[in-house]
Amino acid sequence: MKKILLVWICFIYGLLFSCTQEIASDIFDRVERYMEIYPDSALLLLNRIQHPEKLSGKQRADYALLLTQARDKNYLDSLQSDSLIKLAVDYYRDGDDNVKAGKALFYYGKVAALQDKDTIAIQAYLAAQTKLEKTREYKLQAFVHEYLGRLNNDRGIYDTALDNFRKSVCYYQEAGDTLGVVYNYRNMARIYDIKQNRDSSFWYLNSGIVLLEGDSTAPVLPSLLQMLGIAERKRGNYSIAANHLLTAIRYERNPNSIKHYYFSLGDVYLRMEELDKARKCFKKGLDSKNAFTQSGACNYLYLLEKKKEKYAKALYYKEQSDSLLRIDQNERLRNAISTIQRRYEAGKLRMENKMLEQEKQKQLYFWISISSLLVISCVFLYFWIKKQYRRIYRERLKKHVEKASRVIKGNDQLIGQCFCRIEELQQEKILTKEMAEEQIAELRKRIQVLVIENKTIREESCAIGVYVLEQLRKKLLVIENMTSKEKSQVFEYMDLLFNKFASRLKMDYNLNENNLLLAVLVKLGFSSTELMFAFQSEMNSILKKKQRLKSKFCLGADDNLEAYLNSYSLHLST
Q1: Can you give the pTM of this predicted structure?
Q2: What is the DSSP secondary structure assignment for residue 289, as one 8-state letter?
Q3: Please, are residues 447 and 419 in contact by the beta-carbon 8 Å criterion?
Q4: What is the mean pLDDT of residues 113-124?
Q5: Is 479 helix (H, G, I), strand (E, B) or coil?
Q6: Handedness of CA 550, 554, 556, 561 (dihedral sign)
Q7: Number of C-beta neighbours around residue 187 at 10 A
Q8: Percent share of the chain, pLDDT over 70
Q9: pLDDT value at residue 17
Q10: Residue 232 in contact with residue 241, Cβ under 8 Å?
Q11: Which residue of 69, 89, 129, 147 is most buried, as measured by CB atoms within 10 A?
Q12: For the residues 440-468, what does the mean pLDDT come to?
């Protein structure tokens, strides 16, 4: 019963685990469909997974990859952890799924870059590039090269960055993503502007605008127009530059970017000697909440007042600009310190969680060890008690059998003496006939009492045989551990119950102890399972024992052994 219950519990647990795995797989499929179009819905679906720490293998890696991707799409950079995405990287790195391996490495690089780990980020991007180069994931490959270009650009490695951006453009063209091509054109234009190659910069800016085909909703268009306006200003084409900047201001939706566009436009007006228009443009930045933007506005107003030779106002704006710049620098420093402190706290928290997890594992192992030791001790104690019980039982049985044998032997001797005395009395002529008959009657009474006593003792011995059979049926005793006395008690019980069944069967078919015991147990209705335990054998071995016993009884393979033994006992009784 316990085994059946354990198997049932395992089956239920396996079924629940399988259902949980299927639910998680279904959610992952839906998340992948929503990721590009509805990233917020994808994140909500992932948050619906209960106990994600219980996931394992591929599902654990998929969960880590999809959650990192969803957080990136929803701009939740502060929630990113390299330990999460590293689960996916470690799982897919040596697998056959190059697409997921490349995607995991790409996001691992993004997370590392957010943490200012540029070297690790570049290594991750290069590894992702290797995984993806033989796949058709063109857009993902374009992302990898684009982000590599950004890192190289930040490090001042402009030629390598240009090469990265060109490869990204090629992959975006393969993927049919025009917007991605335009963004990389803008990146390349900026690098060429830094390198003083203004013709190339001008060409990429114009090419980007042409590709957009006048789509004013494209978020990259205002920045292209601003850069183009600055390029025209450097060429001395102030009217054209002003037109480009005014168009950029009209299309821009970001208020902070608009203020910087006004600064560029004000600089153009300043060069065109349209000072009132320039002042209006510069003052747009004074109401900004950003200290750096306010400092820039004050600096431009300083240049304006200086051009107008109003040095007092110019000095005022200069002091304001320097003061705001220091405030901005202090704010940046505080943010940097705060960021470092947050990272330290996050690292400390992760370390504490790791130590706590290790402590929990140690406690778990400790209690598992204690429980295992307790279970082993209980099992050992159970078998020891069982062994002691059998030993005590055998000793008592032995003493009882020896005592019964002595009593029966003494009674048999007395009975023999009584018979001898009866014969003597019958032969003696000295005594009178009456006296002889009286003594003979007394001796016969005594013989009857001794016979009854011997019968009672034998019946008690048979009761011991019943007890032995009960021990066999309850699986508390095996035939291998039975003593000869115990076996003889069983045979005596069968002889008493079925008119010399065991003795006649042994004499008629010359059976050894084990075959005779098998016949007795089959006769008493022991099942094959009970026989397996009694003989400590497999089912095939029990079937072979029965077949050999059939052959001794001259029975065929199709004959029923139980039926034959029942008919044999009936034949004896008749």
Answers
A1: 0.57
A2: S
A3: yes
A4: 88
A5: helix
A6: negative
A7: 21
A8: 85
A9: 43
A10: yes
A11: 69
A12: 69
CA angle (102 as vertex; 96, 105 as ends), nearest 5: 120
Calculate helix-pair angle for 221-235, 255-271, nearest 10 degrees: 20
* Token pair of 465 as six digits: 């045989």
Residue 117 phi, psi (nearest 5): -100, 70
- Report pLDDT digits (tens) over 421-438: 777 766 664 445 666 677
Higher model confidence: residue 157 or residue 336? 157
Q: Check: CB of residue 572 under 8 Å from CB of residue 499.
A: yes
What is the DSSP code (8-state) at residue 500?
Answer: S
- State the Cα–Cα distance between residues 67 and 49, nearest whole angstrom: 11
DSSP letter string, 44-99: HHHHT-S-GGG--HHHHHHHHHHHHHHHHHTT-GGG--HHHHHHHHHHHTTSS-HH
- The rounded Cα 441 to chain-centroid distance in angstroms is 91
Lowest-pLDDT choice from 184-198, 291-305, 358-372, 401-415: 401-415
Alpha-carbon distance 270 to 286, whole Å? 18
Q: What does the block give as tokens for 499?
A: 């008119």
- Summarize pLDDT for 20-65 with one digit per residue, the tens: 455 567 777 787 777 777 888 888 888 878 777 778 888 888 888 8
344 to 15, 81, 115, 465: CA distances (angstroms): 43, 13, 12, 80
Dist CA 159 CA 315 (whole Å): 42
User: At residue 60, what is the residue type?
Assistant: R
Q: For every residue of 307-319, which 3-state class applies, written as one string?
A: HCCCHHHHHHHHH
- Give 480's DSSP letter: G
Cα–Cα distance list, 320 to 258, 292, 327, 407 (Å): 22, 11, 10, 127
Separation between Cα atoms, residue 236 and residue 129, nearest integer Å: 43
CA 273 distance to own-chain centroid: 72
Long-range CB contact pairs, 203-209, < 8 A, 24+ = 205/231, 208/181, 208/182
3-state helix, strand, coil in the chain (%, to 5): 85, 0, 15
- Residue 484 exposed, middle or buried by CB count within 10 Å (0-12, 13-18, 19+): exposed
Greater confidence (272 vs 457) lies with 272
Distance (Å, rounded) from C-alpha 140 to C-alpha 136? 9
d(CA 96, CA 377): 48
CB atoms within 10 A of CB 151: 19
- Cα gap 65→241, rounded to integer Å: 46
Residue type, 433: K
Output the CA angle 425-426-428, nearest 5 degrees: 60
Q: Which of 1, 73, 64 is nearest to 41 (CA)?
A: 73
- Picking from 173, 128, 129, 195, the residue whose alpha carbon sits closest to that of residue 185 is 173
Of how many residues is the chain composed?
574
> What number of other Cβ atoms are within 10 A of residue 176's Cβ?
10
